[in-house]
Amino acid sequence: MEKTNTNDIKISGSGTVGGGKYNEVSISGSGKINGNVECVDFKTSGSSKVLGDLKAGTIKISGSTRIEGNVEVEEMKISGSSHVIGDVKSQSIKINGSTHIQGNLHAEEVTIAGSANIEKNCEAECFKASGCFKIQGLLNAGQINIRIGGNCNVQEIGGEHIEVRVSPIDNSFFKKVIDKMFNSKGELTTTLIEGDEIYLQNTNAKIVRGNHITIGEGCNIGLVEYSGEIIISSDSIVGEQKHI
Q: What is the C-alpha to C-alpha distance for residues 120 and 128, in angstroms, rounded to an integer?
């Protein structure tokens, strides 16, 4: 998104402005925008609220932000806390903080290193997660790479290449002892996983369906349906397996 001859908004104390078109919106205090906003750059390190839709080239959130509408952005980085009432559409979204999206998330690339709660569907070309997340609808992506860093919940997962592994830091001997003592092992829970190449660790699923499937350690699967080959760890439980 190119800059235009429109004005900037800078709030470093406490202020309220109307919606409209701007070059840069910068909030380092407490700011509220009444109405839809379209800007090149949206930056907030304070407390901000947008009472409408937000369309921007880049969004950087390191404070606390609530957007009471839809978000359309090229690049979005969240290291603070954000709450979006509507849908989010982005080329790239990186979550290092905490994010709650009440609608759908659609992006080329999704990276979660913090925590995320998506109430509807998440669709991406590439989905990477190393934190904890909850997706109440479908997770659909070409490439799915999950490093379990806490409890993760998804209604259904679909993709070409799906890889779910325990995060390296969580796979240490010390972490395993702590997990056993306090029953705090991070895991992925879902009803259905469907893909071409699938590798799973610490996963609870009713059905896993694919071509080449590896059920690694710590899994509890009700039914595995495979068309190519299957490998099952002795440390995992599979109720039933079918070659289709």
A: 18
